[in-house]
Amino acid sequence: MRFAESCLHERVGRGRMGRMALFDRFRRGPRTSAPLRDGLRTGSTRVRASDSADAQHLLQWIQTRRGIEGFVEPRTAVNDVTLLLVAHDGEWTRRRVPSVAWAHAFANKHQIPSYDAAVVGVPQRMREYNRRKKAEGI
Assign residue 124 a region: left if phi > 0, alpha if psi is -120 to 50, beta otherwise? Predict the structure, then answer.
């Protein structure tokens, strides 16, 4: 058996055999292509797409807190679009959402002011809440 024949591998999901060169795994291919629009995969980082459990959590969270503001965080290399909700005391939750438009529509529907976090940042009360919780050892 020649060396090249011993380097054969099966590509996952393709059902065919092929040779693998030393740097093949670093080349752009199906794993690192542009994000699919169907939500099954959201880019090369393979982050989980938003689902109904995320929307349900956001809905339950706003029903049990007061003085809530929403901060829409844009897609990054690591995360998909997220909606950060911050209550009056700085308590917060963050969940993935389908799109920036969906996040603003969700906030408008529930009469929550929403902002673009990339423009305005996150509120000081959230940082103070995190500091308090860290000091408490939680």
Answer: alpha
